[in-house]
Design a protein that fits this description.
alpha/beta, Rossmann fold, globular
Amino acid sequence: MTLTDLDRGRVARAFDRAATGYDEHAALQVEVERRLLERVEYFELEPSRVLDLGCGTGRGSLALETMFPQAQVISLDRSPNMLRLTGARRSADSAPQICADMHKLPFASRRFDLVFSSLAVQWSSDEPRLFNEVLRVLRPGGLFLFTSFGPDTLHELRTAWAVVDERPHVHDFVDLRDLGDALVKVGFMDPVMDRELLTLQYADVMTLMRDLKGIGAGNAAKERANGLTGKAQLRRVLEAYEPFRHEGRYPASYEVVYGATFGPPEGQPVRTGEGEMATFSVESLRRQRRR
């Protein structure tokens, strides 16, 4: 989730271009996904269907497949090139990879027991729509487990760019309290939110920028400046980053937000724009009637 108004088409194209070299530059993304996978083990789950939402190159999908061999693990991403790498990483008899927008999930309602999403949520600037879609495809009581970025992410780079001009160069991310409120507002149950700060250290700022470009995490703000960054501008950014240097290394901070929340049980009223609404499957009503 981001406060920056994003050009989602530009986001998709950037990830598609970056797919081939993504893993080479994605040290932080791999580490965050590993930590989120560890959290899956906190829950005693026996899912039959799992959705890896924003699967990237498929590391998480493969890990989930290993963790839950009895489950169908479906990988979804908007980038065809990312999905090709996911398919190459997984076995031939794995569930298919789905190319789709996470705001328009091509699945029937109540299909998944677990929706897992590592560092994809922050690429939405329409969080109510995204969370509503996740809630729709979760079975009653299903788990939504995700990570996103918080407002302290890349604050050093944001500060350095602010010296150059007032246009957005680093996205502004939503804090964990607002994320939790957004989940409750669409009908999720008892979200548990927490955060940690991870700091990468670079020998120089240009390597940091190359890593960001290498994973497709460029500036996708609709109000971004058009055209290439000039040498004079870049020099000013590098100079403005200097005060953050410590013992010859340049830090890049990432505030990682973790969220865990459940879909409401069968018949639990959910608040909507039109008031509270309770949803039942026909089968559940028939079971109640028989009892």
